[in-house]
Amino acid sequence: FDPDLHEYHLNETPLISTTMYLKLGGYCRPYSGNGNAALKGRFVHEATTLLDHGRLDRARLDPALVGYVRAYELFRQEFGFVPDLEWRERPCFKPIYRYAGTADAIGMTNVGPAIVELKTGAPEKWHHLQCGGGYAPMIAAHRPEYAKADRLLVYLSEDGTYRGEKIDAKQLPMLFASIVACVNGRSLYGNYNNGA
What we know:
This protein is α+β, with helices and mostly antiparallel strands and 196 residues long. It contains 5 helices and 9 strands.
């Protein structure tokens, strides 16, 4: 995985990411920002990962990130979330469908195993497909004990609060597999000139 280019490879073979499949399938609206929101999200992910590993230097933490880190701490406390540190922000791939992604965290909550996806922006419907449809089966392929894990979207806010959302839709893995098949089929046999 190349974090700067956000590209995945299995040996020398490039793999398409879960999010890119959703973009190519038309499930994500085109990004029109200047990159600041994505950069903020990346920094929040890095800060929360350092926190989980016990290496976050709060004295050097950008003040703009403090509220998001507090929101994550509150989530961990209220859900009893203990992340599996080996799988924190770990790139992974789905062997059969050959897509890749980086789920934010897996671990145990008060009620059992969970796959956690952290977000710093507004909720979007496609987030359910990303976490419940793409990441959950990908992780279960490598860690079978997470096959029936809760799938949680955790929206962190700058004010130190969060909103947790459990993904219950059981059809999401099949829907995501269909998206992968359609995008792959279109790339092989489709017409990208809108019929021209």
